[in-house]
């Protein structure tokens, strides 16, 4: 992975919406982080079908669940997406 990239993993409906299981995204040169809402918008711009998925999906940044505003679900601390992070887009899963 190059020095200004973020690994994105897509699960369930997010994988269906993008047509891919994962991708590596570059952030602008000179930046080392991006706010979660801006990151989500970047994903939606690249994959418009994700817009519907994000109405119910959750993000996990390095295995920590985060809301759409960038707050950890456990503890409420604000976080950003940083170079080298792994971000998973996880829609609700159902079935049996």
Automatic annotation (TrEMBL):
UniProt-recorded Gene Ontology molecular function terms: nucleotide binding
UniProt keyword Lipoprotein present: no
Any GO CC annotation of this UniProt entry: molybdopterin adenylyltransferase complex
Organism: Powellomyces hirtus
Pathway assigned in UniProt: Cofactor biosynthesis; molybdopterin biosynthesis
Positions of transmembrane segments: none
Source superkingdom: Eukaryota
Keywords of the record: Molybdenum cofactor biosynthesis, Nucleotide-binding
Name this protein carries in UniProt: Molybdopterin synthase sulfur carrier subunit
Keyword Membrane in record: no
GO process annotations (BP): Mo-molybdopterin cofactor biosynthetic process
InterPro entries in alphabetical order: Beta-grasp_dom_sf, MOCS2A, Mopterin_synth/thiamin_S_b, ThiS/MoaD-like
């Amino acid at each position: 992975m190059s020095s200004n990239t973020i690994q994105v993993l897509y699960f369930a409906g997010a994988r269906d919406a993008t047509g891919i299981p994962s991708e590596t995204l570059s952030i602008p040169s000179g930046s080392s982080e991006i706010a979660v809402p801006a990151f989500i918008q970047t994903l939606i711009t690249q994959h418009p079908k994700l817009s519907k998925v994000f109405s119910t999906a959750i993000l996990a940044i390095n295995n920590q669940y985060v809301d759409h505003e960038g707050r950890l679900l456990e503890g409420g601390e604000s976080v950003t997406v940083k170079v080298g992070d792994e971000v998973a887009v996880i829609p609700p899963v159902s079935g049996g």
